Amino acid sequence: MNASLSRRRLLAAAAAAMTAPWVSRATLAATPAALPDKPLRLIVPFAPGGPVDSLGRLIGKVMSPSLKRSVVVDNRPGGGGIVALNAVSSAPEDGTTVVLSSITLVTTPALMSSVPYDAEKDFDPITVVGFIPHVLVVREDDPAHTLADLVKAAKSRPGALSYGSSGNGTSAHLAGALFADRAGLDVTHVPYRGAAPALTDLLAGRLQFMFLDVPTLLPYLRAGKVRALAVAPAAGARALPEVPTIAASGYPGFDIHAWYGALVKAGTPAPARQALYDAVRDALNSDEAKRYLASVGIDPGGMPPPAFATLIHDDLVGWKQTIGRLHISIG
Q1: Is residue 18 included in any domain, yes or no?
Q2: Which of 79, 124, 89, 155 is nearest to 261 (CA)?
Q3: Which tens digits make up the pLDDT trace of 263-284?
Q4: How far apart are CA 229 and CA 65, in angstroms?
Q5: Per DSSP, which regions of 83-133 are E strands?
Q6: Residue 210 counted as domain residue
Q7: Residues 98, 41 contacting (CB under 8 angstroms)
Q8: Confidence label for 33 from pLDDT (cuts 50, 70 and 90)
Q9: Nearest to 17 by CA among 284, 243, 291
């Protein structure tokens, strides 16, 4: 997908936002207390464990002192993020319930005939917490050493190669489907219930390639079990500067970015949203968060709410077009 906001511009906006206020301090000084005096609930659309849950818990811990309140992580997996989003839509409009949504916020409406939310009308964006690059990988002993090698092998044996994903409609599936389409490949998609079983079959030789997010990939890459052929974001992956992009490997315009962002229920007062934005931005700028993000290969976010709203809109439009053209659905 080639969104109107490139990932390079998104990262630049996030970096600039680390020091820029969204609403003037004078405006805030004239308002009542931004948030009610009660704990903040941070809803994570995944089960405990894993890089996103760990990121949510870390951000919550670092935010707590600046917000002068406890931050409780509430894991609500299921339904492609719908369960977590519904929990926010039924919460008070006071800023004390925040969801750490994945990019499924914008892909699920294009994949399903009906969803119980409007991504732009039902939520107020706070900021992107992190960008998670996806990487096309093969087994370490695979004959393909470049993306061109893999494409040549697939075209020499139409229908013989398979790629796995963590499930129908996931970022890994969409990246694989879009790449196969752009490269003109006749390959089979094999969905799994999570990245781990798909990776097991890749290592066993039952799959030939797959897209993996960098946090999942890094331990296997360091152990010499997989080979990274190309990264999906056109701007590359900070954790893998030596790995070429798909766009630079013969497929210009290929630019898939997965993100996780903080949102609240639509109608939350601006002072509450500003307080949350400041707290998340400051948390991302902390040494503890910087070390964690670098260790797992997540690129930090931090863009102000208007820029995040633009990203949501652009991704909604872009993914609807792409998913419709590829005839992908999950119900």
Answers
A1: no
A2: 124
A3: 999 999 999 999 999 999 999 9
A4: 42
A5: 97-102, 123-132
A6: yes
A7: yes
A8: low
A9: 284
Residue type at 310 in one-letter notation: T
Contacts of 160 (CB under 8 A, 6+ apart): 154
Rounded distance between C-alpha atoms, residue 308 and residue 13, angstroms: 10
Backbone angles phi and psi of 225, in degrees to 5: -95, -25
Q: Which residue has the tokens 């969803």?
A: 115
Yes or no: say if 109 and 322 are a contact pair by the CB < 8 Å rule: no
Residue 205, in any domain of the structure: yes
Q: What is the mean pLDDT of the chain?
A: 89
Beta bridge partners of residue 188, listed in sequence order: 162
Q: Which of 196, 213, 231 is the last residue of a domain?
A: 231
Q: Domain of 47?
A: 40-131+257-326
Measured CA to CA, the distance from residue 331 to residue 320 in angstroms comes to: 15
d(CA 251, CA 242): 18
**Which stretch of DSSP H or E encloses residue 29?**
helix 25-29
Q: Residue 49 above 70 pLDDT?
A: yes
268, 119: one domain: yes
Q: Are strands 134-139 and 162-165 parallel, antiparallel or unpaired?
A: unpaired
Three-class SS of residue 267?
Answer: coil
User: Which residues lie across from 230 on neighbouring strands?
Assistant: 136
Q: Residue 118: pLDDT band by 50, 70, 90 thresholds?
A: very high
CB-based contacts of 286-294 (< 8 A; 24+ apart in sequence) = 286/62, 288/58, 288/62, 289/58, 289/59, 289/62, 292/54, 292/55, 292/58, 293/55, 293/130, 294/238, 294/239
Residue 143 CA to residue 150 CA, distance in Å, equals 8
Least Cα distance to 160 among 138, 139, 188, 141 occurs for 188
Give the containing element (helix H, strand E) for 165.
strand 162-165
Q: What is the pTM of this model?
A: 0.86
Residues contacting residue 14 through CB under 8 Å, at least 6 positions apart: 128, 300, 301, 302, 303
Cross-strand partners of 258: 132
